[in-house]
Amino acid sequence: MTKRIFRSICLAVMAVLAASLCIIMGALYGYFARVQQNQLRTQTALAARAVEEEGIGYLENLPDLECRITWIDSGGNVLFDSEEPSDQMENHLQREEIRKALKTGFGESVRYSSTLMEQYVYCAQRLSDGTVLRLSVARHSAATLLLGMARSVCVVILVAVVLSLWLAQRLSESIVRPLNELNLDAPLSQDGYEELKPLLSRIDSQQRQLQGRDTQLRRKQREFDTVTNNMNEGLVLMNESCNVLTMNPAAARIMGLVRPFVGVNFRTLNGAQTMEAALNAALNGTHGECSAALSGGVYQIDASPVRAADKVSGVALLMFDITQKQYLETQRREFTANVSHELKTPLHTISGYAELMKNGMVSPGDIPGFSGKIYDEAQRMIRLIEDILKLSSLDEGAADMTRERTDLYALAAETVKALTPMAQENQIRLYLKGESHFIEGIPQLLSGIITNLLTNAIKYNNPGGKAWVEVGGDDTGVTLTVSDTGIGISPEHQKRIFERFYRVDKSRSKAVGGTGLGLSIVKHAAMIHNAKIELNSTPGLGTTIRIRFPIEKA
Ligand code: ADP
């Protein structure tokens, strides 16, 4: 802009300068023409008087003159000429100034000489004897005048150009400066040009509109970030080339990335290969689903196409954690298979013995033994079904059971009493230690916990061994400890004995009437009471299981 203004000012100055020069030259030319004419008249009058007095002698003795002198008789014949021999000159009677002078005493004319390519001014005066004296002088053209003044004109032009360049530079800078200093963040607070006011008002209103939209966009972005940052599900938005536009922290965590990556191709990221099927389906315009093992869990991947103008312009990918669901599903399948297996064995035994008896293949003396076996297997099945029912009730959260203030020590005493015959049978001595401690709990479940733990302490013990039940506590909780001097559990089994149907020694468990569900029931019952289980066991020395019931403050 500065350059443009500079150029415009320069052009304007040059045009004014050229016009001024032309006008001045025209005026000078007119002035000099008038001065020349007046001089010629005066010279003609003086020369006429001199010729009247001195005759041709005056003319012949004249030094070199700037003007030409011609003396003509009344018939038009040239008597004398200062530049050419008079006898060679043509008759001058028809010359305008001669005719006027013969007629009125004085004549003037201006003519262009095509031979000399110059304009000539003529001035003629009639003398008293009827002859005419004429003086003529060449009039310089405007170009000649200009040439004559060339140096002065050049100096003027040079000064004018330098001055106008300097002025144009200063002017253009001073015109542009207020524009450069405009603060567009506060357009209405400017003291600039009045003509800019409408434009600045427009900018101000547009800026306010933009600020409004910007605030709105930021708010929406914040809301979106808050929602996606706090989601447990992974969310990835990408364009049709699979370049990531948005990735929430959960998605980065699930994919095992150090941070959410944006702007990179999704396919190049760790774990993206496992989602390829769902991604391809979404890119082809259909909803895609698959499950992927990521970050130590199992995730369901849902990929949906994002459409714009009937074209897939991106993909929205959601990752749901289905680890627990899958785990429960596997557990359910394993449980069903285990239950079928556990029931099949006693049923086969019962069926086999019954068949022998039906076919009369058992002697009367063996019948009590056979029916005793059938009874034992039936009892095993009943215990198993009872345990399964207890577990399924616990799986439901024991919703049908009510909590009440329960003395854990009193429950332990009852259990010890109930299991004393079994302990005596197995040559185990039972001990009860501690004192009354109350907790808010479900008595049936608490009793089930103590019974299962104490039964195990008897079952997995050695003849002559001991088993203790102890109830202790403080302000924060009550601890139930069941320990024995039994066979113990080796470390590799300790982690798994609370699983359903897990047994360290299957035949021993079956021999002592175990179902493999006792500790699962203990675990679930403890969970319902928010209790923590701790197991300490040394093979050959014994086992201690401690359950800590927290006292919930009102
Ligand atoms: P079970 O009906 O077989 O006793 P549990 O769930 O009660 O089933 O126990 C699971 C397994 O843990 C048992 O089969 C046994 O191998 C082991 N176990 C449980 N309690 C003890 C204990 N006090 N001493 C040694 N082993 C034990």
Concise structural overview:
This protein has 554 residues and is of the alpha+beta class. Helices cover 49% and strands 22% of the residues.
Strand content: 15-25%
Helix content: 40-55%
Mean pLDDT: 90
Count of alpha/pi helices: 15
Instruction: Give the oligomeric state of the chains in this entry, treating copies of one chain as homo and distinct chains as hetero.
Output: single chain
How would you describe what is shown here?
Helices cover 49% and strands 22% of the residues. The protein is built from 15 helices and 17 strands. It has helices at 2-54, 56-60, 96-104, 142-148, 150-180, 197-229, 249-254, 276-283, 323-358, 367-395, 408-425, 443-459, 491-494, 506-511, 518-528; strands spanning 68-72, 78-81, 106-113, 118-126, 132-139, 234-239, 244-247, 288-294, 297-308, 311-321, 404-407, 429-434, 438-441, 466-473, 477-484, 532-538, 542-550. The strands form four sheets. It has a five-stranded antiparallel β-sheet. A five-stranded antiparallel β-sheet has the order 7-6-10-9-8, with helices on both faces. A five-stranded mixed β-sheet has the order 12-14-15-17-16, covered by helices on one side. Helix 10 (367-395) runs parallel beside helix 15 and helix 12 (443-459) runs antiparallel to helix 15. The protein starts with a helix and ends with a strand. Bound molecules: adenosine-5'-diphosphate. Adenosine-5'-diphosphate (ADP) is lined by residues 452, 456-457, 460, 484, 486-489, 497, 502-505, 509, 514-520, 543.
